[in-house]
């Protein structure tokens, strides 16, 4: 097949640009999807071609008719192969979306050393979807876009630990978290561990939030030094929690299908979102260097985080009632945060 032959003969850079994976990672993925995901080659289409078509569509948000031209396949064949690969990725998802201890070095280790029992950060992100006209009001978020609100937890190493897509865009983050804590495939947090969350969530056991009404977002600190234990705590909390914003940035840069509504039915769109998170972790495990991370970090340095400031304020106003049933604030947890913050300031 001419397109695949060009990829095989081309450079790693070509393969990453087209499929988002290095050649080695691509062949490893094909093997894993065959051995563990139950992906079977059909009479006419080898698994490598099926996986390449799938990745091509996710990476560039391609319509079937565009893929039809590149791969010289019928729309029916492309559709069937796409769904087969999607099913295989979903089958191996538990092997990749999980908590794995990580070793950090340098500046990254320094950011997290203040939060020793913390296993990562948790937040919601909106991903555009296409739904039927009668469902649009439920999926319309605060900005007026039609989206699904995806609850995500990631580790300090930018690997995703837990993903819950599917909630309507109109649902507040706290409501989605409440569901994640109660559903069958629930968010499980090991005893004694916790996540960093933003001010839209209640500061309660297992979820450590910043102090409200105190400077928080990183751009607010430019040229300023912390003047109190609350300010220092918020600065360090923001520096570490930034991991989830960075991982969202990389994810959406890598898979352009997540940046605009796609033509699939909503159930398939939700599974595609899940698959993108699985593939993100696969790439983090397989490829030592991630150029997208460097690009993302450069952008973070230059972008003022106004979006997040507004979001936190609005989430606080919208979700006060939700918060109470999701995470109960306890005296013990409030003391835990105060002690942590005061110890930081004493050693500052």
From TrEMBL:
Main location: nucleus
Residues in DDE Tnp4 domain copies: 122-281
Highest rank taxon of the organism: Eukaryota
Annotated GO CC locations: nucleus
Signal peptide: none
GO molecular function, one term: nuclease activity
A Pfam family this chain is assigned to: DDE_Tnp_4
Cofactor: a divalent metal cation
Family: Belongs to the HARBI1 family.
Protein name: Putative nuclease HARBI1
């Amino acid at each position: 097949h001419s397109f695949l032959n060009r990829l095989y003969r081309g450079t790693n850079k070509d393969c990453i640009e087209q499929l988002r994976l290095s050649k080695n990672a691509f062949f490893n993925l094909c093997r894993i999807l065959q051995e563990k995901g139950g992906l079977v080659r059909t009479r006419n289409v080898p698994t490598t071609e099926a996986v390449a078509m799938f990745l091509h569509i996710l990476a560039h948000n391609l319509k079937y008719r565009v893929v039809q031209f590149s791969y010289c396949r019928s729309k029916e064949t492309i559709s069937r192969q796409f769904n087969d690969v999607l099913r295989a990725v979903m089958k191996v998802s538990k092997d990749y979306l999980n908590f794995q201890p990580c070793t950090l070095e340098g500046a990254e280790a320094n950011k997290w050393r203040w939060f020793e029992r913390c296993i990562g950060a948790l937040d919601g992100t909106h991903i555009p979807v296409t739904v039927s006209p009668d469902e649009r009001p439920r999926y319309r978020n605060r900005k007026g876009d039609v989206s699904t609100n995806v609850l995500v937890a990631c580790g300090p190493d930018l690997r995703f630990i837990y993903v819950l897509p599917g909630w309507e865009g109109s649902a507040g983050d706290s409501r989605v978290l409440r569901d994640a804590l109660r559903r069958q495939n629930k968010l499980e947090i090991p005893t004694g561990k916790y996540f960093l969350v933003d001010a839209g969530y209640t500061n309660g056991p297992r979820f450590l939030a910043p102090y409200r009404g105190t400077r928080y977002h990183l751009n607010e600190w430019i040229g300023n030094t912390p003047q109190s234990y609350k300010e220092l705590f918020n600065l360090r909390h923001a520096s570490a929690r930034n991991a989830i914003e960075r991982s969202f940035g990389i994810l959406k840069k890598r898979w352009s299908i997540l940046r605009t509504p796609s033509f699939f039915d909503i159930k398939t769109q939700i599974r595609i979102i899940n698959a993108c998170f699985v593939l993100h972790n696969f790439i983090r495990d397989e490829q030592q260097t991630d150029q997208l991370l460097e690009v993302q970090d450069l952008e973070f340095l230059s972008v003022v985080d106004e979006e997040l400031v507004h979001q936190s304020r609005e989430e606080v106003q919208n979700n006060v009632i939700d918060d109470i049933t999701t995470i109960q604030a306890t005296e013990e947890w409030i003391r835990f945060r105060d002690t942590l913050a005061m110890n930081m300031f004493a050693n500052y």
